[in-house]
Amino acid sequence: MDSVRRYLDQVSGVLAELSLPAIREVVDLLLSVNYVGSKVFTLGNGGSASTASHFACDLAKGTITPGRSRFRVLALTDPVPLMTAWINDTSYADVFAEQLLNLIDRGDVVVAFSGSGNSPNVLRAVELARDVGGITVGFSGFGGGKLSDLVDVPVVVPCDCMEQIEDVHLVLCHLICTVLRQRLVEIEPPVSLALYSVSAWPAMAPRR
Known about the structure:
This protein is α/β, with parallel strands linked by helices and 208 residues long. Helix content is 51%, strand content 12%. A 5-stranded parallel beta sheet has the order 2-1-3-4-5, sandwiched between helices. The longest helix has 25 residues.
């Protein structure tokens, strides 16, 4: 078998092994967050940084549905001057957590991408989000790393090839946005956010 066919077959095999309940849970969570008007923050390093930016773009624009609220989403991988300021003045491990301190509110969602699941700056941002009452989603690979144990909704790509993990993360981003757009058109009722690590939620009502 030639190397091109082998790679494509390997990616297909990884896709077939994904946990569908975990993916559906991410869709349900984001639909509910859209309904109540909470914010979504995305983050990651290296290739995962570009995935975080891509997902924020698609979630903000690609899911727009007439008559429904738009997603309030921001990629913490995009503000380069602010990122370099925090890296220079504190450390790279704080580059996302320090941004979140300015922006996150209770009930907001942080979506973290990390192939290894062990990037210190990703973990620190997730820990901060949980401390302030945020809900966390983690996309990782290999065995899930520390990230999969830390987040409310882990999505682990069962693969030990970083390139293929990142391939599948992007496929999942496109899948999630496509399904969200379909469900927004159908005006499905959201699931309860009480399923996650936030208690005493206010009554849910559409954001005006």
